[in-house]
Queue: 2 jobs
Job 1
Amino acid sequence: MSLNTDSNFFTPGKRYFRAFSPGDDFYEALIDMHRDLSDEQSAMVNARLILLLANHIGDISVLREAMQIAREGA
Amino acid sequence: MLSTYKYPKFEYRRPPELAEQRDGRYPVVIVGAGPVGVAAAIDLAIQGTPVVLLDNDDTVSIGSRGVCYAKRALEIMDRLGCAEEMVQKGVSWNVGRTFFREQEVFNFNLCPEPDHHRPGMINLQQYYLEEYLVRRGQSLPNIDLRWKNNVIAVTDHGDRVSLRVETPDGAYSLDTDWLIVADGARSPIRHMMGLDIEGKIFMDRFLIADVVMKADYPTERWFWFDPPFHPNQSVLLHRQADNVWRIDFQLGWNVDPEEEKKPEKVIPRIKAMLGDEREFELEWVSVYTFQCRRMHEFRHGRLLFTGDAAHQVSPFGARGANSGIQDTDNLVWKLKLVMDGKAPATLLDTYSEERVAAADENLMNSTRSTDFITPKSATSKTFRNAVLGLAKDYPFARALVNSGRLSVPSFLTESRLNTPDSEVFAGNMVPGAPMDDAPVETASGENWLLQVAGNRFQLLYCMSDAVDIDAATAAAFAALADAPVPVEVIVIAERGRAPGGLKTLIDSRGRIRERYDLKPGTTYLMRPDQHVAARWRAFDAARVRAALARATCNA
């Protein structure tokens, strides 16, 4: 399996009528997660989130691909 | 500053209450002759209701203000008889481009499907829209448009509403059965009634400059994040009618709005943006902040709040005027049925329920856009810039770029007026959906589904050949047309004309079949505001009557 970079957000059982809505749902939740946190706290929360998601994905070749793309933009 | 537009001055006339020394009594009064109030007046008038429309001024909106009118608003204006002028004068567009620093990272097409009559959006200065609406209103015999009539007191007596109105000739009183409040964001009537509107103000300021220039930029919406000519902020460019261009600069909170409005501050900003010696002149400059808020309910007894008086959103999605026009579209058919004694007043509660849901959707989308455009924390800005950086190469990130989710109609899927599906359908035309347009062929030539639909309950009935209607079905259709709340049947067919003068539309390009998942026998009940009320795989008069009763609170 290779890294999926197409739009892939959804909520199980929820019907979306507008293409932008699932991505916006995710992005709002992401920004909400950081509400009222200091920059330092946010950095820790981001690190924890990456670790949880990485384990969920599991496939290290996919993770390496994502890491490479992420690093290119540093 | 230059002026491409001559403001009309509407004539004040001494109202009959003062001329004849008597108090007025009317079925419905509207306060506020902005786009929403005049649209409501026209809609009521063309349905045969006399309307009094009060406005404290005697001209149209000063400055271009709301410039983007969406496909759905145009479809409503079509039914009010104003869209053609708007589209002729306005600038039609479908494509928006988003730039991050110097690179384009994302573009969208508002109308990606073929075979729709109206474009995704037009840009037109608000004063033109208001002028067209007022002129249309003046052409209707039953609208009493009263300029320089300022409402100074309101009392809801339960069985009627009393108004005290000030004019250049003194004050007078009138009573009305129903009051439509369309008096704008500051809504003096909302204040007089002591009603709350809740939400938040965004800590940011934006500069609007309307610039007259000859430019060969394509007719598209261009949005910049952090451009070299205006670092760390956003900029929006839009073309309007008469070679007027709207430029919107984000300024941040800590600026002096009076200082920023001065031409000596504005002109260098625009020069830096245009990047050449192109000549331009300023037409209108304004610095604004905005609020995102709504009233808890839009109906208060006999007062019906609409448009900005009821809800306000950030401008990044053109969801202000467009949603106000949809408010009146939702309200007027319900009010008409209630006034005619054909539906209980509870039907007006569904105006509030449905438009509160729509307002929440508009608030959610415009707040999300605002949070993306003006991140509130360092972390939020890092994510925003990461999305913009990935967007050029990775489709998932393009979908996350949010420079405004532009106004589209709500799917009223939670409405109690809908009859839930009991059969399987593909596609998006679920109960509560706003109807999709499609080209049709009528007895008098080519037309569009949404030009034929609307203003009354209608039943779309699908057949292969329209001549094949049997006598029993024809009799059932005739009975529906004669009911207290009449339902007009429209036969949608591949060929043929239905007998007995039944309206027939030929689905010339198969788009209705495709968009509504039609099969022979498929039947849709449509509301007067072009939302789906119910649908079935076969026609059954009893089920249609039940769905109609449900859609009018008569169940």
Job 2
Amino acid sequence: MLTSFLTDYTRYVLKGGKQFYTWMGVLSAFILAMLFVFYLQNTDGLIVTGMTSQISDGLYLANLVFLVGVAAGAVTIVFPAYVYHHEGMHKVAVLGEMLAITAVIMVMVFVFAHMGRPDRLWHMIPPRGIYSFSSMLGWDVMVLNGYLILNFVCGFYYLWCKYTGNPVNQKWFIPLVYVAIAWALSIHTVTAFLMANNPARPMWFHSMMPIRFIATAFAAGPALIILIFLIIRKNTKFWVDDSAIKLLTTIVQFCLGIAIFLTLSEVVIELYARTEHANGLYYLMFGLHGLTALVPWFWSSVVLMIGAFVMFFMPSFRNDFDKLRIPCAMAFAGIWIEKGMGLIVPGYIPSPIGEVTEYHPSFVEWLMVLGIWAFGFFILTILLKGAIGILLGEIKHGGPAAAVK
Amino acid sequence: MRKLASLSVILALCGGAFYAVSAAEKAAEPAKEAAAAKTPLECFESRKGASELTQRDVQPGWPNVKCSPTTGAALWYGDPYDGTVPMGKMPGLDIAEGKAVVKPRTEKLALMPMCGVSCHNGVGPAFNPPKLPKDKKPAPVPTMEAMVPDLANFQHGRGRIWCMDCHHTTQRNMLVDHFGDPVSFDQPQLLCGKCHGDKLRDWRDGIHGKRIGEFVSTGKKRWFTCTECHNPHNVQDGARNKGFIQVQPEPSPQLPRGMANADHEKLHPIPH
Amino acid sequence: MVAEFAVKPAASQFTPLLEEDVAINQKPCAGAAQDRPSDCPVQPASADPAANQLKTTRRDFLRAGGMLSLSSLMGTAALMTQSDNANAAVEWGEHFQKNYRLMTTEEKNEARLRLERRYSDEYGKKVSVDTTEAQPGMLMGYALNIRKCIGCRRCVHACVAENNQSRGPRPGEKIEWIQVLRMERGKFEQEKMNHGYPEGLGIQVGGNAYTPAGQVLEGQYHYNPKAVPEADATYMPIACMQCEKPPCVKVCPVRTTYREGDGPVVIDYNWCIGCKMCMNACPYWARRFNLTTPVLPKEEMNPVTHYLGNRPRMRGVVEKCHWCLQRTRHNRYPACVEVCPVGARKFGNLLDPESEVSKILERKNVFRLKAELNTFPKFFYFYD
């Protein structure tokens, strides 16, 4: 039965039109570029990137943090679906889980990308390696892997049941879903701790970080999900209910509002006293010592986020699903900038001993980022296609796919 | 879509080209460096003119000293005791025999070989008229002034001390202590401590000045004496702000990737 | 307090050995092992018998655990990029060795010999890798007289000469562990009475406020005047503070960086995964990352090394100051102390009341950099 599931699934996923293959081909090209960059990084070293000893992490860590948020954001579907039994959401909950799986895998690839010695990753894994409970990175790896497993189990068990036609065993499935919901919060909280537990970096060292991470995650994650749902509605036979999209829109809007509020609070608190510890934020907003590389990033993020927030208020955007893409894309991009260039990088500027340097991501670094995103979309396309196929009943045990055989 | 696909392939190729270029640069640069880096074999220690070391191998690949190609200063000690002699007795210091050594100053002083014999041989000048200072009042010493042109401008003590407060009247190859007894040029601390008692005390405990060798308190150390770091004739030196003569600094750190210069460091923005 | 805890000076336990050695060789070098790297005396075993016991059981446990297929896969991948087959066996052994702290004495010796062989081969001279452990009765401490420092950067370059850092021309290939900060003295001037806080907002509270005098981290690292010290500047060197409560150690996910019994925080370069979390955590920016394979010319390479100290590093790992473990474990002063032309740098045993650092703590005004972070550095700044 398992083999037939796998063959049916693979066969269905591989079947596609010209558009599908072009899409996957483009993604593959980027993935190849990423592999090449990965090869460079592991022969020449991270010197091919824009990272330095001063700015020891950049785009990679930024994307990692952002994608942890996207992974956690999937809970905005699962939570209403299973806790409030939201009808429309329940239908698409498994798609959220697929997104979570994808995002966590991307996070792991970014972990590989940012490391100096990915070949030694096994040092973290007992019994041969050492697992450190005092290290936030250790905890992060643990919760991320746990989240991946939880989502994989929940998602594919549900699909499996749909495939075989058996009812879902609620006895263990529902508790597992609840665990996954709580776990989603943990992954982003621990990632926030990873950054915030560094008194050496005043930009990160405040207790607002976890809630800010969660708020931005629950805005960026569902914003991406809305965009994906709209694409699914347009390109497949699968119909995502309006109610699901409407609820997600509300969630995005409120979380975005909270995120903006938290950002403004930070700005006021840091800049009112304007201590030495505000140097990072000041560099981000206005530049420091005449160096201003991040200033356009910050303000574009502010414009995107506030613009999106305002648009969500307008019924013309909220109710017109064609126009809804605009604020969703804006919110997603705004938060990507805010978490990436706006949070990770200024943590390194100035250095803990006051040296101001700037971060200039190299071409290969961008290529790596693009490649990993392409890889993510590659996986996501496969996972969503398979899931939708099962949900539509196109992949079914003994179904049409089997009949072809 | 086809266009996009080919575009991404081009992107990947660009990455390859970039790598090839950077690899070529890497190959070219070590050669350039090898030509430029000609490390000097002789270097000065604390201050220029006080003491020098000549590089030689203590054992293959392990020299006694490494010199700075930029400034010619001693940058690294393989052998901290090169060319040293026992320090001799020092009041208040109880160090086991052979555990304290110094670099002899005597051989560095240009006039030294003459000082003890040609004029001031311990008896007084043989030439006419025999005139050694009768008391400690400063008096012009034309022969010395002829040899050391800026003698009159020495700032040490701001005119409240003069040559004979430090140099022995009759034994000119010696310094002098409070009792008028001669002090070796290799032990200037016995003299300097007359006035700079606090510094002497700190020096004795290793707080002031410099010792190299074994750091444990019972270990063998080379002690740097006062005059190896301070030129007593030149304690005021224009732009400096410390009791140490100005030296050329070693090169500044490498600018990290993406930084063209470090001019921004000179700005001190007003923090609003 | 210092005197109370002082053990009989550690030196008495092992200096006789060194002295004897020096006498035999007629070599004036302090550390015997530095003179004759290859046949240096037997490594002292761990002082704590319990520690050895623990290691043995742990080893058995690990052996039972076997090897992960994942790890071997990755190892293969890493080796495939190595073109030189002669080194492959050594690389292989190095790749699968354990965390240094969990190695038994034999395993440490094996690792040492493996490295000595590889380094000697690579650098064309006899390279020794010392594994001397912390000595009982020793707690290293450092003090720096900031009133004396003239900013000449000789310590920076002595450190490089001693510790085999990368020194290539490309940005990121040149690593220095010590940073010297130049701080302006600043000036208050009559003409600036109309400038000041908060300029541009229409209200003025005070004039002359923005002279950088006394502003500790508002300075230059890339200063390059013709001569130092400059009249309008003071200097402050910063390197690893060897904290007693090091934030970097806490965040390390593989425990490859840890604090040795005699004080210094060290790194097992072979176990480091290059995650750079320690670089985020260090409040003193003491850690550097090997962005590429270190560029270390053969003739400049220092062949006297310590496993946890200055042995050549590899691409993708973090490194930092370790107070010249290869020297200090044999009682020799760190390289930076020895070249400081003004004697601003002081090093000694904090448990020995006669050491220069103990005397400084007893007599001078000292402070620790960023003491508010409770990292408890054993690097003290002081002034006369």
